[in-house]
């Protein structure tokens, strides 16, 4: 990584949930993945265990309740990203991935909260680098290969959509 960069660190828990061969995703409304598909999940609140954070975040963003099947792995992504009034030049996104199973709920009634503007179930062939976050692309890869690389994925160019 080059010198003179400042990373904004984001740590979060994310669920990979498939129902009827479709992946559960949200419509991102903010941050470096704005206007892209993203995995449901997000930040851990103070004094909140990881599984509780995952359940809360998925329910908040999608209206869906899930059961955790297992921990898949952790991977980090570094993408160019700046915001007014901040000195960082990149987002360092540390994603803790879990496989989850759909229990109940309907994404048609998913709330529009924080940086999510709704959710939907989509076929894996709908996702590409120009319309999805690195987390979604990692989920698609994991679904096909059942492994998550341990290396950091650096993006030298990244378009933050308006």
Automatic annotation (TrEMBL):
Superkingdom assignment: Bacteria
Gene3D superfamilies: Nucleoside Triphosphate Pyrophosphohydrolase
Annotated Pfam families: NUDIX (PF00293)
Residues of the Nudix hydrolase domain: 6-145
Keywords, sorted A to Z: Hydrolase
Coiled-coil features, chain-numbered ranges: none
Family: Belongs to the Nudix hydrolase family.
UniProt-listed PANTHER family: ADP-RIBOSE PYROPHOSPHATASE (PTHR43736), DIHYDRONEOPTERIN TRIPHOSPHATE DIPHOSPHATASE (PTHR43736:SF1)
Name of the molecule in the record: Nudix hydrolase domain-containing protein
Protein species of origin: Gordoniibacillus kamchatkensis
Organism lineage: Bacteria, Bacillati, Bacillota, Bacilli, Bacillales
